[in-house]
Structures are given as structure tokens and as C-alpha cells.
Write a structure and sequence with these properties.
heterotrimer, A alpha+beta (207), B mainly alpha (507), C mainly alpha (221), B: 507 residues, mainly alpha, 0% strand, globular, C: 221 residues, Cytochrome Bc1 Complex, Chain D, domain 2, 2 domains, three-stranded mixed β-sheet, 10 helices, 7% strand, elongated
């Protein structure tokens, strides 16, 4: 123990063991998964181009601080809450870089949010001010993703239909920027509504 | 002018009169004074900055409108800035300053290469500023968001959120600092080595290893989909458990005999504790991925490893607490030992919660809640930060040959940090358990859970605020240390007396 | 300052050092060499070690699911039920052309249109385009991988706009399918493209921003 090299070699072995077994071995085992083509669809789905840009907005805003994108089957109430239909598995994230899986839920899980009956108007109102759609929520307002501008000629057909109490000055309208549109496209693209052979689901384990 | 002459006399003090047998210590302190002060300055600054961001993030959880219209300060950016500045700013600078001081002192010889250390730590801190601004700007630096879309956004891996191009700079400057540590250890006079030295060397080596591995497997050659999540948690867990915790353990091992004058109880078990700590803690990262899109066996192994730290924790607990309690009456009138006492208790509680939190039955309830953040903060603020604070007070008076400028400020720092961390951690842990019970154990709507947890969020903010006051007190204290005029006693070599020999008593 | 009013303070100005550094190293290194039998530390730590071993043994036997990389369940009952579940229906293979068509509709058709005719002035056509039908398939692969920006002449007409990379999270195989589709539909008749070709082009160009038409002009000389 009195020699530096002894500590370094020992520690090298310890860390190499940890890395080889808990990082490298899983990667060797399942790092080469590929998408499945089955019943005329690719699993996992391919997101449309706009959603790719929305994913970057999602990253820039650090949404992963409060929202996960993974659902659990045997513990928790993810399935009961309709956050997903089955256990999330590695193949669901094939091709995603970075994979926005997350480990903190202050808000709901978003892995299957695109399958909910929420249209783009709902999402826009929710991002503009979460109190409009979910009173009492502690989600921040992303109003800086929206332009408040004077109505010139015809009102824009993209302008938000703000409810009472949240209107802007008369003669002005709130229009989503390209970033807001992209973010909403990303939300709508998040769908894990397909089955995979290795994915446990309630019916497969008889829950 | 007065300030300038004061700071000059702090940086290059000249002592008149005899040093009373302290010539060696004085020459060691002189040889590292300049680079070490260069680390303590940014440390004190980052401590305040990180807690300001922590406070903003914490307030945003119960009052989402607070600074709501500012894109740079949205919760998803402020929160990673808090963690990153706390770890890479405060804990790294302070921890490495303490570690290097004890490496030099235990080596027993004045050391050179101060230039290497000064340059490396300056690069480290500048790169950190750029990296944190990068997070606030959305994970990239180009001001034009269209350009930034083609680069990347904020990385979603815990404690690796800074833009990728910062990583090589941080790593290079860290290697510069690490080399300095290694050279210092090589040039030591006392051939025997002490536990503090093992932990420092191990932490230096471990950081270089895990940071390189994480950067390669997440950014240069990213692994596939969900495996990134595995690499990310392996890195974050190891950063806490085998980099920061060992640095703080090194300080405890040094300060206990140094300030109490008795050897560590049961020191002959230290070697086993050292190796078992690194073996178990380095494998424990995957425990928190339970039930996720990761093969089940990986998390099973992680849980076993996390449970395994029970063994080294038992050794540490007995060693530290028996040494402290055997000299209980001497603790309170030594400022650094007050911090160390609560730091050690914090460590034992942290270890216990770490093991408890990784059990399957606990994770079933507490997964994805603030519980794990609470445990991490207990380790970072309740243990490491407490130890480093105490240690800094101990070394500052020796580096500068000055007395504590204001005992009142030091007391404020101590009490605020203690009460703040207690409030913060207890609200996150108990709040997290309640949150998890509602989130995982029922289908109550998320909105009503938020309402339910509001009091915990407010308590956490209050804790952050108290911690911030403590950090400001430390910053002021440090500034006074640097700028105060030297008293007559401080200009002579009589301020610090000669250290007696440690008496070897067999436990 | 502590000298001014020492009575007010309960803390001394300096934490005294009670042991010299050299003696700390020497004494502890002597303690390490001593054999101590039956200390409290030894008793409690070996008890802890036995607990750790027992816990680890049971967990390893019960929850590792045979180290199966595709098994996400950790309880035996669940694993048994899962493995005995009979899935319904087997997969149907689709041709590269069909997969490429689906991807084209999602990623490309908003600019180049469903019929591959593009839009005058802005988006060049793909049907009949010499850029798409070039005998060296590397040309269209390069454009799909990295995008192309600025003025470009296609079939004698000038176009000017920016095309971003369409790759995103697509794998090489998917990129190959897209290129195969555009080379073989709307009357186009050029060779099929494989994933290996895409991989080799990717390796050649590395990660880069969009091309300009001049950079690729060498294909027509």
C-alpha cells in the first residue's frame, strides 16, 4: 500500500471490472439492436422531420429534468395512468441520439403522449401558459416560444385561441414561432403504441 | 492601495523572527500557496453561484411564474446549472485544494510545478464558465438558434449537460492538475503512505477514467438508445461515489488525527475499507435503472453492489465516530472539527440512505421522485461540502499565516450550512417518499400531487436559502482573510506553534 | 479580530495542530503492521460482510434472469408467464422499395412532392433528375446524408433553397431504402442502393454541413 503504482494498478483493475461488466458487457449484448419491419410498419416508428427539430427544442429547454420517456409494467402505476401500454424496452430507443429517457418525474411520463387525444391547439396553449390547460401545474410557461404581434389585415390562422382571462391586448395576436411548432410536432410524434416480441405487456404476464 | 498591499502580504507574506521548528511546514505552505489560493477563490465564488441557481430552481417548483418569462432561466436549464456548478465548481475546486494541500504536507517536502497547477486550474474554471453559459443558452454556444439546431441541444445525461466541446478542455486541465498530484506524491520524503493519500490518488485517477469513458461512449461514439442511459448513470454514480466522496474521506482521515492528536481507531482496517469501497461503489450505478429499458440482470448486479457498501460503511462509521466521540470535549472549540463531526454523521446517514434507496422495495415507491436527489445532496452538501468547508478554514490560516478574521462569520457559515442542509435534505427525502407513494402507488392526478407537495418544495427553498447565506458568509470570510491587515503577531513566526508528535496508542 | 475582544469568542483564531504530519504517517503505518485480534471494528465489519454476501447470493440467484439481454422482468413468476405467452401472427418482410416509399412520404414529400416533381424555383424535381439517376449512387447518398444548400441546376432549370440532412435517427439501411425508392419510382430506373454503400459514403464524408452544388459538380465532368 506504500507505493503509488500498487494503488494505480489496483484501481485500474477495479474500474476496468466495473466498466467491463456493467457498461461494456450490456453494450456487447444488446448494443446492436435494429428496428423490426412487421405488419407494414417500422418498429419503433420514424418521426417526421419537424419532430426532429422539436426534439432539439425539448433538449435545449431541459425538459428531461422533469419528464421521463419510459414506462414500467410490474411496479408503479404507469399503465393505470395510461402513460404507456407496456414495459419500455431497449428496442424502443433504437436510433435515438440522445435518448431522452430521464430519471425524474415532476410531470407525467411523455413516452406515449402523442397517442393521447390532445391536439396541437391543446399543446400550444399548454406551452404558452400551462395554467390554461392544467390549472395548478408547476410547469413553467414557455411564452417566449410565441410571438405577440399586432394583427395586420386578416388574423393569422395559426394564432392561439386564448380563453377568457388570458387574452392579449386587442389588436394583437399570439402566434407560435417555428420552435413552438416543432416542439408540438415532437409531442405528437411520441407514440409507443405498437407491440414488440420482447416487450412485456399486461396481457403477456397475465396482469 | 491598502487593499493591494494587504493582498500582496497575504500572497507573499514575509515572517520575521524564528519559526520555532516549523521551517519545513512553512516552506511547504509557501510552495503551494499561490496555486491553492487560486483554487479556493473560484471555489468560494462557485459555492455562492451554485446555490443561487439552486435557490432559483427550487423556487420555480412552487412558484413557476418566478423569472418565468426569461428563456435563459427556465427550470430545465437552471437545475443542471445548479448541479454542474456545485460539483465541478465548488466541490472540485475546494476538494482538490484540500487534497493537494494534504498531499504536499504528508509528503513532507516543498514541491515545485506550481505553474502547471495554476494554469490547469485557470483553464478548468474558464471552461466551466463557458460550459454553464452553454447550458443556459440551450446546450450550444452559437447565438443563432437555427445554427444551433444542426449542432446539438443540452445533453440529457446527469452531470454531463455541458456542451460536448467543453469536455476535452475540462479533461485536459484536469489531467494537468492530476499530474501535479502524482508528481507531488512521487517526490515525497516519508516513504510510508497514509490513507488520505490513497483516496486522493484514487479519486484523481477515477475521475480521469470515468470522464473519458463517459465522453467516448456518450458523445464521440455514442452507444445505442437506452444504453446511453446506462452509461450516464454509471458516470453520475461514480462521480459522486468514487471521486467526490473519496476526496472528502481523505480530508477526514487527515484532519481527525491532526486536530485531535489521537490516531484513528481501528486504522488497520483502512486498506480493506478502501478497496471494498471502490469495488462496490463503482458498480452500484445501475441500481437506480431498475424496471427501466435495461436488461434486468444489469440492475440486479447494481443493487447487490449498492448493498455491498454496507461493509466499508461499517468500517468508516466505527473509525470516524469512535475517534470523534473519544475526544468529544475537544471538538467544539475547534472550528474545522465542528464541520467534520457533522460531515461524518452526514456520511453515515448518506450511506444508510444510499443502501436503503437502492433496495427493490424502496425503489418501487421512491423511483423517479425527489428521494434520490435528496440522497445525492446529502452526500454532496451534507458530507463533502461540510468536510471541505472545515478543512479550508484549517488550511487558510496556515497558507496565509493569519488568524480567522471573524469568528461570527464562521459561526454563521457553520450554522446556516448545517440547518440548510438538514432542511433541504429532509424535505427532499420525506417529500420524495410521499411523492413516490402518490405517483407510483396510486392514480391520483399529477396536478393534485403537485399541490400536495407544495409545502415540501417551500421547505426545500428555505433550506437552499439558508445554505446560500452560509456560502455568502464563507465568501466574505475568505475575502477578509485575504484583504485584512496583518497583525503584529501574524507577521512573526509565532502565530502557529510547533506540532507535537502523535502518540501511538494501540486500540 | 480575536485579539481585540477575546472574551466574546468561543472559537480560537486558529485551529491548533495536535500532531505533526510526519508522525501521522509513521504512527498509522505502524498501526497497520500490528496484528490486532478481536477488536470491535473487526467484529462489526465482518458481520456486515456476511450480511452483504448473503444478500448478494440470494439476489444473484433470484433476479438476474439468466443474464438474458432481452429480459426486462426480474421476478420469477412474471418471467414464467412471459415466456409461456403465445404470440399471435408472424412478421411479414417488406421490400426495400416499400419501406423507402413510407420514409419518403414522411421525410421528403413535403418539399419534393409525392409525385417527385418538386416545386419550380425552390425545390428541384427528383423524377428524371440527373443528380438522382447518376450512375454513381454515392452522389444522391451524399446529398441525403448531409443536405445541400444554395443554387443548383437540375435538368437545365435553376433552383435555390436549403435542404437539411434527412438522416436524423435513420439507420444506414433506411437511408439506402429512401435512395432506392427515389431512384426507382416515377419512371426512374437506376440501381438499387445497399446499406453498405451508405455506410462507406458516411465514412468517407464524416459529419459535415450541407454541400454546395459546386462541390459536387465533379460528378458531371
Amino acid at each position: 500500500m506504500n507505493r503509488g503504482p500498487f494503488i494505480f494498478v489496483g484501481l485500474f483493475i477495479v474500474l476496468a471490472f466495473s466498466w467491463a461488466n456493467l457498461v461494456n458487457r450490456p453494450i456487447q449484448q444488446s448494443g446492436q439492436l435494429s428496428a423490426i419491419y412487421d405488419d407494414s410498419e417500422r418498429k419503433p416508428r420514424i418521426a417526421p422531420g419537424a419532430a426532429d427539430q422539436g426534439k432539439l427544442v425539448y433538449q435545449q429547454m431541459g425538459c428531461v429534468s422533469c419528464h421521463t420517456q419510459q414506462t414500467r409494467l410490474t411496479v408503479g402505476s404507469d399503465i393505470d395512468r395510461a402513460w404507456g401500454i407496456r414495459q419500455s424496452v431497449a428496442r424502443d430507443y433504437v436510433g435515438q441520439y440522445p435518448a431522452l429517457i430521464g430519471d425524474r418525474r415532476i410531470g407525467p411520463d411523455l413516452s406515449n403522449v402523442g397517442a393521447k387525444e390532445l391536439d396541437s391547439e391543446w399543446h400550444h396553449l399548454h406551452f404558452y401558459n400551462s395554467q390554461i390547460t392544467s390549472a395548478g401545474s408547476n410547469m413553467p410557461s414557455y411564452s417566449f416560444l410565441y410571438d405577440v404581434r399586432p394583427v395586420i389585415g386578416q388574423p393569422s390562422d395559426r394564432a392561439l385561441d386564448l380563453p377568457e382571462g388570458y387574452e392579449v391586448d386587442p389588436g394583437y395576436e399570439v402566434v407560435p414561432t417555428r420552435r413552438a411548432e416543432a416542439l408540438v410536432a415532437y409531442m405528437l410524434s411520441l407514440k409507443v403504441d405498437y407491440d414488440l416480441p420482447e416487450a412485456p405487456s399486461p396481457e403477456k404476464i397475465g396482469l | 492601495m491598502k487593499f493591494i498591499s494587504n493582498i500582496c502580504s497575504s500572497l507573499w507574506p514575509e515572517l520575521s523572527g524564528e519559526l520555532k521548528g516549523r521551517e519545513t511546514q512553512w516552506s511547504i505552505d509557501s510552495s503551494i500557496r499561490y496555486p491553492l489560493l487560486g483554487m479556493i477563490k473560484p471555489a468560494a465564488f462557485w459555492f455562492v453561484v451554485s446555490l443561487i441557481f439552486g435557490l432559483i430552481a427550487s423556487i420555480k417548483l412552487h412558484s413557476p411564474g418566478f423569472l418565468g418569462s426569461c428563456e435563459w432561466l427556465t427550470y430545465g436549464k437552471v437545475e443542471p446549472v445548479f448541479w454542474n456548478s456545485l460539483i465541478y465548481g465548488w466541490l472540485f475546486n475546494a476538494g482538490l485544494a484540500c487534497a493537494f494541500w494534504l498531499l504536499a504536507r504528508l509528503g513532507g517536502a516543498p514541491i515545485g510545478n506550481g505553474f502547471l497547477l495554476t494554469v490547469s486550474l485557470s483553464i478548468w474554471n474558464v471552461a466551466l464558465v463557458v460550459g454553464l453559459i452553454g447550458i443556459l443558452m440551450g446546450g450550444t454556444l452559437p447565438l443563432n438558434w437555427r445554427e444551433s439546431l444542426t449542432v446539438s441541444g443540452q445533453l440529457p445525461y446527469e452531470w454531463l449537460e455541458m456542451p460536448p466541446f467543453i469536455a476535452p478542455i475540462l479533461l485536459a486541465s484536469f489531467i494537468g492538475m492530476g499530474l501535479w498530484g502524482l508528481l507531488t506524491f512521487r517526490e515525497r520524503v516519508h516513504r510510508a503512505s497514509y490513507a488520505s493519500q490513497w483516496y486522493v490518488l484514487a479519486a484523481l485517477f477515477a475521475f480521469a477514467w470515468i470522464y473519458t469513458a463517459a465522453q467516448i461512449m456518450l458523445i464521440r461514439e455514442p452507444s445505442q438508445g437506452s444504453l446511453q442511459y446506462l452509461v450516464g448513470s454509471w458516470y453520475a454514480n461514480n462521480l459522486l461515489m468514487i471521486v467526490i466522496v473519496p476526496l472528502a474521506l481523505a480530508c477526514v482521515y487527515y484532519l481527525l488525527p491532526k486536530a485531535l492528536g489521537t490516531p484513528i481507531v481501528g486504522y488497520n482496517h483502512s486498506g480493506r475499507a478502501f478497496w471494498s469501497w471502490f469495488i462496490f461503489a463503482s458498480c452500484a450505478g445501475s441500481a437506480e435503472l431498475i424496471n427501466g429499458p435495461i436488461p434486468a440482470w444489469v440492475t440486479a448486479v447494481g443493487i447487490i453492489a449498492a448493498f455491498g457498501i454496507l461493509y466499508p460503511l461499517t468500517v468508516f462509521g466505527i473509525q470516524f465516530l469512535s475517534t470523534l466521540f473519544a475526544n468529544f470535549t475537544r471538538i467544539w472549540d475547534t472550528l474545522s472539527l465542528r464541520f467534520v463531526l457533522f460531515g461524518c454523521i452526514g456520511f453515515i446517514v448518506f450511506g444508510a440512505y444510499y443502501i436503503y434507496g437502492s433496495l427493490r422495495s424502496t425503489q418501487e415507491v421512491a423511483q423517479f421522485s425527489s428521494f434520490s436527489n435528496g440522497v445525492q445532496l446529502l452526500g454532496l452538501l451534507g458530507f463533502a461540502s461540510m468536510i471541505f468547508s472545515g478543512f479550508l478554514y484549517f488550511i487558510l490560516s496556515r497558507l496565509l499565516n493569519k488568524e480567522l478574521p471573524s469568528a461570527a462569520l464562521a459561526e454563521i457559515h457553520f450554522w446556516m450550512q448545517l440547518s440548510g442542509v438538514l432542511l433541504l435534505v429532509s424535505s427532499l427525502i420525506t417529500g420524495g417518499l410521499q411523492e413516490g407513494e402518490l405517483m407510483n402507488g396510486s392514480t391520483v392526478s399529477v396536478l393534485s400531487i403537485v399541490v400536495n407537495l407544495k409545502s415540501y418544495y417551500v421547505m426545500a427553498s428555505l433550506g437552499m436559502f439558508l445554505m446560500l447565506l452560509g456560502a455568502i458568509a464563507f465568501l466574505v470570510s475568505f475575502t477578509l482573510f485575504m484583504f485584512s491587515t496583518r497583525s503584529e503577531k501574524e507577521e512573526t513566526g509565532t502565530l502557529i506553534g510547533e506540532s507535537p508528535e502523535l502518540e501511538a496508542s494501540v486500540s | 479580530m480575536s485579539e481585540d475582544n477575546p472574551d466574546v469568542l468561543n472559537l480560537p483564531g486558529i485551529d491548533e495542530s495536535k500532531a505533526s504530519d510526519e508522525s501521522i504517517v509513521k504512527v498509522h503505518s505502524r498501526i497497520r503492521r500490528q496484528r490486532v485480534a478481536g477488536s470491535a471494528v473487526a467484529f462489526f465489519s465482518s458481520t456486515a460482510f456476511i450480511i452483504v454476501l448473503t444478500f448478494g447470493w440470494f439476489q444473484l440467484r433470484r433476479h438476474t434472469a439468466g443474464y438474458d439481454p432481452q429480459m426486462y422482468l426480474s421476478e420469477r413468476g412474471d418471467i414464467h408467464a412471459f415466456l409461456n405467452y403465445v404470440p399471435a401472427g408472424a412478421g411479414v418482410e417488406k421490400t426495400p422499395f416499400e419501406i423507402g416509399q413510407e420514409l419518403y412520404m414522411m421525410r421528403c414529400s413535403s418539399c419534393h412532392q409525392v409525385n417527385g416533381e418538386g416545386m419550380a424555383g425552390n425545390f428541384p424535381p427528383l423524377a428524371g433528375s440527373e443528380w438522382v439517376l447518376h450512375e454513381d449512387a454515392a452522389l444522391p447518398i451524399k446529398i441525403v446524408l448531409a443536405g445541400i444548400a444554395g443554387p443548383i441546376t437540375v435538368m437545365g432549370q435553376q433552383y435555390n433553397s436549403n435542404m437539411a440532412s434527412v438522416v436524423g435517427d435513420l439507420e444506414d439501411r433506411d437511408v439506402a431504402n429512401i435512395v432506392t425508392y427515389i431512384r426507382q419510382s416515377w419512371g426512374n430506373e437506376a440501381s438499387e442502393v445497399t446499406a453498405d454503400q451508405v455506410a462507406s459514403v458516411k465514412e468517407e464524408i464524416g459529419s459535415r454541413g450541407p454541400w454546395t452544388a459546386e462541390e459536387l459538380q465533379s460528378y458531371f465532368e
